[in-house]
């Protein structure tokens, strides 16, 4: 691949353009908002000048509702040898293109499973896709050259290619992305008018659950509008579980011991099923989930503290498998949770204590 045209210079499009430019590909940028394309160009993602002729690959990074229209114009204009889109929904856009009677042998639907709570070119980064799955949805009609170009793009972006059927992809992202986003928003909405005294008690748990609720609503309306059926089906299942759980909690308030026991069993059931689902979430590097020991360290909110603690762990010969930070409310301090192999926890604890760190249970 020597040249590319990125149509749509938001977070995903600009990030892909930055990755391609870094690998020496000549990237042309286009957007319905010329200022946004100029911003992406100023960031080093390419040039906002139109290509003189067909490029090797056109990457359509428009919202799902507009993907088919943008692709149709690009195909009719013969802007490239191959065409892909990076929208989060795959079945609908392809069916729209099929109804237009276009030759889709040069088109391949794709979806990089990566993003941020922020949108726009200023949030873009060349390493956004590093180590992340990038779904490809070829059909029997897909030209091999286009598939190879798409694989080259995925490689340049440092992502991991995953081949799926388009409709299976849409059901999958409804489960692992679209439905969880709405549930996160529903939980966060409870905080909007909550008492300030209650909000000040927020800990890491509520931060984890509501983190993705900070995303741009307009962007998510576009996404959900393109995949409403599978998301609604899943939310219907969640609603049924919620209704059952509400009944179980009400039963726990009963004066009748049998009803309380029934309520406890109902709550335990949903918690057990939650445990069973959570352990299926892939662990480090996509491997099977591992059980780590957590060493909790109190740190001050000072420059270099994290670097020191990681360096001290390295001197102890301990690999940090994962890390989380829980910020203390109203204090210039926090708790760093260092996840390590169980057999390494005692050595790490002893080494950190020796170097003056305050270990918490």
TrEMBL record:
It comes from Streptomyces griseoviridis. Its EC number is 1.3.1.12. This is Prephenate dehydrogenase. Residues 2-283 form the Prephenate/arogenate dehydrogenase domain. Residues 294-361 form the ACT domain. Pathway: Amino-acid biosynthesis; L-tyrosine biosynthesis; (4-hydroxyphenyl)pyruvate from prephenate (NAD(+) route): step 1/1. Keywords: Amino-acid biosynthesis, Aromatic amino acid biosynthesis, NAD, Oxidoreductase, Tyrosine biosynthesis. It catalyses: prephenate + NAD(+) = 3-(4-hydroxyphenyl)pyruvate + CO2 + NADH. It comes from the Bacteria. PROSITE patterns: ACT, PDH_ADH. One of its GO terms (biological process) is tyrosine biosynthetic process. Transmembrane segments: none annotated. NCBIfam families: PRK06545.2-1, PRK06545.2-3, PRK06545.2-4. It is an enzyme of class 1 (oxidoreductase). Belongs to the prephenate/arogenate dehydrogenase family. GO terms for molecular function: NAD+ binding; prephenate dehydrogenase (NAD+) activity; prephenate dehydrogenase (NADP+) activity.
């Amino acid at each position: 691949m020597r040249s590319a045209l990125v149509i749509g210079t938001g977070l995903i499009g600009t990030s892909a353009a930055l990755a391609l430019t870094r690998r020496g590909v000549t990237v042309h940028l286009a957007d319905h908002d010329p200022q946004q394309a100029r911003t992406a160009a100023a960031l080093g993602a390419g040039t906002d000048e139109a290509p003189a002729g067909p490029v090797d690959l056109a990457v359509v990074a428009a919202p799902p509702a507009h993907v088919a229209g943008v692709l149709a114009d690009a195909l009719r204009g013969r802007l490239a040898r191959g065409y892909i889109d990076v929208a989060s929904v795959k079945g609908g856009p392809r069916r729209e293109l099929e109804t237009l009677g276009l030759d889709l042998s040069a088109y391949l639907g794709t979806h990089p499973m990566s993003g941020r709570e922020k949108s726009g070119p200023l949030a873009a980064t060349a390493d956004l896709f590093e180590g992340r799955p990038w779904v490809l949805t070829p059909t029997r009609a897909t030209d091999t050259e286009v598939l190879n170009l798409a694989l080259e793009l995925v490689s340049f972006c440092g992502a991991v290619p995953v081949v799926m059927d388009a409709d299976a992809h849409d059901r999958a992202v409804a489960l692992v992305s679209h439905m969880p986003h709405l549930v996160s928003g529903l939980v966060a909405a409870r905080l909007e008018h909550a008492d300030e005294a209650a909000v000040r008690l927020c800990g890491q748990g509520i931060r984890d659950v509501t983190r993705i609720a900070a995303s741009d609503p307009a962007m998510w309306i576009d996404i959900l509008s393109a995949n409403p059926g599978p998301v609604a089906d899943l939310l219907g299942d969640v609603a049924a579980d919620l209704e059952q759980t509400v009944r179980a909690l009400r039963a726990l308030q009963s004066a009748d011991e049998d009803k309380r026991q029934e309520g406890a069993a109902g709550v335990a059931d949903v918690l057990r099923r939650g445990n069973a689902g959570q352990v299926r979430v892939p662990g480090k590097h996509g491997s099977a989930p591992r059980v780590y020991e957590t060493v909790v360290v109190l740190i001050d909110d000072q420059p270099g503290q994290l670097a020191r603690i990681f360096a001290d762990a390295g001197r102890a010969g301990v690999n940090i498998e994962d890390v989380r930070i829980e910020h203390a409310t109203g204090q210039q301090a926090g708790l760093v949770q260092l996840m390590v192999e169980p057999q390494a926890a005692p050595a790490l604890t002893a080494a950190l204590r020796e170097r003056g760190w305050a270990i918490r249970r």
